[in-house]
Amino acid sequence: MRRSVRTVHGRLHSPPSSDVSARVAVLLLLGTLAGGRASAAVDLTGRWGVRVTGFGDVIGCVVDIMQSGGSLHVVGQCSTTGAVELAGTVDPATGRVAVVGHGGPCSTITVDATAAADGQSIGGTVSCMVGTASLGGLFTASHCGNGILDSGEECDDGNVFDGDCCSSVCRFEASGSACPDDNSPCTTDICDGRGHCQHPANPAAAGTPCGALCDQCGTSRCDGAGTCLRDSKPDGSPCNDDDACTTGDTCQQGQCVGGPPTACAPCQVCDPQAGCVASRAPGCRLPQPPRTFARACSGRAAAGLWAGSVGRHRAFCCLAFRVEGLPPPFGPVFMSLAGPCIIPHRYHRFLDGSDDNGMFHAVLCPHRRSPRRSCCDLEGTTPSVACSNGITPPGVLRGTIACPTGTGMFTLSSAPQ
To answer: Which end of the chain is more exposed for a tag (fewer CB within 10 A), N or C?
Structure first.
C-alpha cells in the first residue's frame, strides 16, 4: 500500500504512524467482508439443478446436497442414469469439492469441482466408469433447475433444458415458441410467454387421422376444434379379437366381437393364444421333443423352447429373440429371431426371421446357409406385440407357410404343449 503524503509550506509531510496503522486495519477488514476466499465459509446445503455435457446428449439432474462441516452427501435423479448417490468432502475455505459415488450404468462416478465463493454455483469435471471404460464430461450446477423459484428467477420447472417454456437459465421462453407435444395432432403446442405450455386447437388439422393406432373397429379424425372424433366401422367389418379360439371375428357397434369357436381335431384343445394344441386328456399322447434337443435348448442363453405345428406336422424350435428397435410412439417394434427346429418329417431345420411391429416374416431352411430356393417362407402375425407399447417378445407366432412342395399353416407357442 502506498502511503499518502501532503505538502506543508513546500515540504513533504507524512501522516502519523498511528494513523497509517488504523487505515491498514480498516482496509484489511473491508477485504475480509468482501468475501475473500481466504476466510469464506462455503455452505452447499440445498437442492441443485445440474447440467452435464460430454456424454453425447445433455444430461440433467436434480440433486440434494447435505453438508456437515467439510463432509458432503449427494443424492438425486438424472434424466438418463436415474438415481445417483455420492459422498466426499468440501473445503469450506476454498470451495474445493471431491465426491465419489454411483448411479445408473456408472459403477463409479467421480466428481472434481470448485464452488463459487458465494456458494451459489459449482463447476468441474465428472467421470463415469462403465465396465472397464472411463467416460468424462463437464458439469455446472446452480439453484436454477431445482424446482424452487429462487430470487432472480422468472420460472423454475425443475430441469435444466430449453424448449419447455422455462429456459435452462430460468427465464420465460418467448410466446409462440414450440413446447412439448401433447401427442394430439388436433392441437398446436406453444408457449404462452409466462412459462406455460398451451395446446390450443389447430383448425388446419381438420380431418387429420388421430386416436389409437390399433383401432380395428373405428377410424378417428380431428374436427378442427381440437377434438379427436371416432367413427365406428360398419357392423360386420372383419377384425381380430386376439383369441385364437374364435373364428370369423367381426365389428359390432364399434367393438370387435369373436365369432364361432374354433374346431380342433381329436386329442386337441384350444388355447386362446396358441390355438389348437395337444390335449393332456386321458388316452391322448402328448408329443415331446427329443430329450437331447430340449436339454440343448435350455442351455442356450436367451433361448426358449417353442412348440406347435408347421403344415400337418408337429414342430419344436429353440428360438432366441433380440430387440432391435424402440416401441411406439418412439419407433416400430422390431425383433429378430433365429434358432434350430425339429420337424419329424424333415428333422433338423433352421428358422430365421423377424417381427416388425406385429408382422412376422421368416424362412425355414435345411441349414442356416441353405440356398433360398430350398427354404419355406413363413408370414403371419405376432398378436401379443401388434398393438403394444412394450418390447417384450411375443408369445405366439402364427400364419401361412409356403414351401417348394406346397403351402399350409403354422403355429408356434412359447409354452410347449
So the answer is: N
Q: Domains in the chain: how many in total?
A: 2
Distance CA 350, CA 315 (A): 12
What are the tens digits of pLDDT across the range 66-123?
Answer: 999 999 999 999 987 789 999 999 999 999 999 999 988 889 999 999 999 998 999 9
User: Rounded to an integer, what distance in angstroms lies between the CA atom of residue 76 and that of residue 364?
Assistant: 51
Full domain range(s) for residue 282: 268-413
Burial class from Cβ neighbours inside 10 Å (0-12, 13-18, 19+) for residue 329 reads exposed
Which of 81, 114, 142 lies at the terminal end of a domain, its last residue? Answer: 142
Burial class of residue 253, CB neighbours in 10 A (0-12, 13-18, 19+): exposed
Please, which residues have CB within 8 angstroms of residue 200's CB and are 6 or more apart in sequence? 187, 188, 190, 226
Q: Which three cell numbers stand for residue 232?
A: 365406428
pLDDT in tens, 184-216: 899 999 999 999 999 999 999 999 988 876 788
* Residue 156: inside a domain: no
